[in-house]
């Protein structure tokens, strides 16, 4: 086949032109010819020579062709250098990380003016290099060919040169001047005059002057920027602008502006309205500018807005719907303002917005928003970040959250969410960060909550300890996610350590606090996380087992395994840990001798309350960064390390409650920061080293409970920071040095249990910290004894110095167990904040000052075993008698009474003898016939000498006393009643109520039965525990008229011997725990007037025998378990020929049946209480015959029928209670005629009709619960027919 090529003439013509063009190109010669222009190469080398390059970034700047040098770009046609890009490749966008990152790879030195010889240079970027506050080069304004200039993060200083105005072609200028040195907030670059901006007005599109000080630019700064007519981006973050004009100048031309950043300036004004004329804005940053007021509706004009950041201002009000209407909004940050109210309107607008799918990030953190989270959240399908932390939201997470398919971060922490967590969360496959901490969650989390969270890397959940959240996942379930952070607190995961946790092998932060785990954690889990984990917090669980040994944790900074049940040896982990907390476990064995090698960076070691043994390793001294060492409550022995050096940073040492012996190491005194030295409860010996006077930072010293000897050092006063000095329970001797009084910061002084002697220094009132109540942060263990002085258990003598009263804020004073004499200072009330005072076991004399009662804060007092005398001030509120014992002359009744040989009547009742014992000598006044010590606050044993009073006819020892909280107590007791036989032939009245007879034995009744003339015996509340069922044969109580055994726990049936006491008129057995039925023997007590058997366990029917008692006037059987009907009892009563019953209480039993008509025969009855039983039927009409009745209570029965009109005849009735029954019909008009009626209760019946108008009770609650009642005082009005019927 022939091929024929046809070429047109035009093809040859164009081929020829291309050939000619290629011949003319300069680089078609030798391939090795340099393209760099020599003068420009020399300029670059000169520029390089002025720079410092510690990382060799300019090592390529040596060959002949500068166009191939790193960071250099030449024009491909002319070979001129057009671009220099020497930005630091290690620059970062992470805040506060500048110095460490930019220092690596950064250039330094000086910027050489040789750059001005590069006439075609259009691009210059020296950003993120450290020129160490070099003065801003003025010559840069001479490189007029520049279009792009970036000198951000270069730590230049001085004034931005006005010569920048010459750069008329410049399109982008970045001078962002935040330093990355330690002087973070200082601004080294400034622009005091912005006139040079006018030179860039027709070219500049991008300008960043962040961190350039514009405070000197005056109030026209905005006008200067507004001349930049082509400007699209303006960044003025943190420029010390102090004002923002509320209107733009007429010459302003910022219509093209797309990005405006005025953040971190103190503008302090509402949002200016001119912002809303910048309709091209896409991004607006106004965070931290102190914006005031509410969000303006003008935002609706910014229809192109994509990013709006208004965080950290003072905006308030509700979040308006106008923001939800912005169609292109992607990023909205309103955090850290004072927005209030709910977010429903704003979210509704968002959900209806046709462009709502554009919103990617919504941050509303730390405002004051409240209410529940609406279901409309679920319509934000494209939202990736939702942060609501730090508000007051309540309720549950809406279940619609499962529709937010794009969500990557959800943060609802620090709110008041008190509902449940929906399992729809488990649908969020893109979710990376879930933070639900610090709320009040409840409920159960199941597998469905987590099953699809394949992207989850961070999970935080914390509820309050008193709430209940249970994470109940299948024990063998393996989740689809691998977490990097887990933070769960106060939620139940345990008791096992579940599989879903065991498989987490990428963790770098672990917090599982108070999660109920009581399992062993596999050693392999620790091994899996060792390489990445930085924090490990497992405290407040019940985790048991041992820890693996010999692991390497290269990144671990802190681990806290405290308050668990770990056991075994200390973990030999190689780690850069800074905090090591293993306290409150069961670890044992010794500490590693090479702990300084294993954990060289540790700052805090807390191992208290374990079982560690052996010596404390001296390698601790090599941990120069160690700040806190707590070894309290272990079993360490041997001497304390002696190798401490001045380079040590330790400020707290607690080695208390161990078995440490030897002397206190002097090397401790060279530690410059040492503030707390706590070595109490050990076996230390010797003196306190004098070198400690150089420890100027010492605040807390506790060396108590050791074997230290010698004198109390006087140089302790030189320790100006010393707040606590505790040297108790040692063997210090000598006197308390006066110099100690000048310690300026001392709040706690405890020198108790030593061998100190001499007087208390008078200068003690100079402890200025207690005088002036200086503030101090006490070591937490000692907060309760702040502002205290304890000198007890020594050999101190002399008097209490009056100067001690100058310690106005003293809370605790203990001078007990010394030999202090003299009197208690009369004006002791000057110690107005005193809470505890112990002066016991001294030689104090005189009276107790009345002013002591004026110290309202005093809650503990002990004055026992002194030589005090006189009366105890009545205002003193203490009921503990032991605080006064051992003062023989205190509150004493004088024996001079024995000289009154004819004294027959002695009544000291209702006086306050402040728990004095009844004097023995009272038994010597043998002429006494009447003795009354009732209500007189006596204490102790009733003296047997009272049995010598053979003429005594009446003895009243009623001993009830009342404390300030209203409770009563037993202070008087009679353990042996043999002395009663001394007045067996004289005594007619005996009252021993509230005298404890618990130790008198089971023969107590036999002792009382010997009193043959006795008529009244009152043993009310005497702690009797039994009641003999038979009377001793020798008894002779035939004259008994009154027997009171009430309020004793007798736990017996009513004994038959009572019915032999046929003279009885009154029997009180209430609250005595009697049981069984009422015996028929009561028929023998024909003279009985009062019978009280209430509040016991009596049962059966109420017998007719009680109705037959002819003299019975008062009968109380309430609060028992009586059953059945009362017809037989009432029949007997009605036939009784006696004067008639006055008081009948049968309430609170289980009585039933109807009330018989015979009830009306009880014409003398004044009180009838049948409430709280099960009576049925109607009120008998005969009740109207009970003419003496004052109170009738049928409350809480099941009675029905109509209220009888005959009740109106009871013209003495004062109380009528028919409430909580089923009475029906109308309220009788006759009730309104009972003028004596004071109380009426008709609630919760089935009464109907109009309330009688002339019924005087107008309180609505009297009638409530009767749905068909109407008329005043009820709000329900009566129908007209009912009104007419009542009138007729």
From TrEMBL:
One of its GO terms (cellular component) is membrane. SMART domains: LRR_TYP. Residues 1-31 form the signal peptide. Residues 323-502 form the Disease resistance R13L4/SHOC-2-like LRR domain. The keyword Repeat applies. It is found in: Membrane. Residues 38-75 form the Leucine-rich repeat-containing N-terminal plant-type domain. Keywords: Glycoprotein, Leucine-rich repeat, Membrane, Repeat, Signal, Transmembrane, Transmembrane helix. InterPro entries: Leu-rich_rpt, Leu-rich_rpt_typical-subtyp, LRR-RLK, LRR_dom_sf, LRR_N_plant-typ, LRR_R13L4/SHOC2-like. The keyword Ribonucleoprotein does not apply. Its main location: membrane. Gene3D superfamilies: Ribonuclease Inhibitor. It is a single-pass membrane protein. It holds the Pfam family LRR_8. Belongs to the RLP family. This is Receptor-like protein EIX2. It comes from Raphanus sativus. The lineage of its organism: Eukaryota, Viridiplantae, Streptophyta, Embryophyta, Tracheophyta.
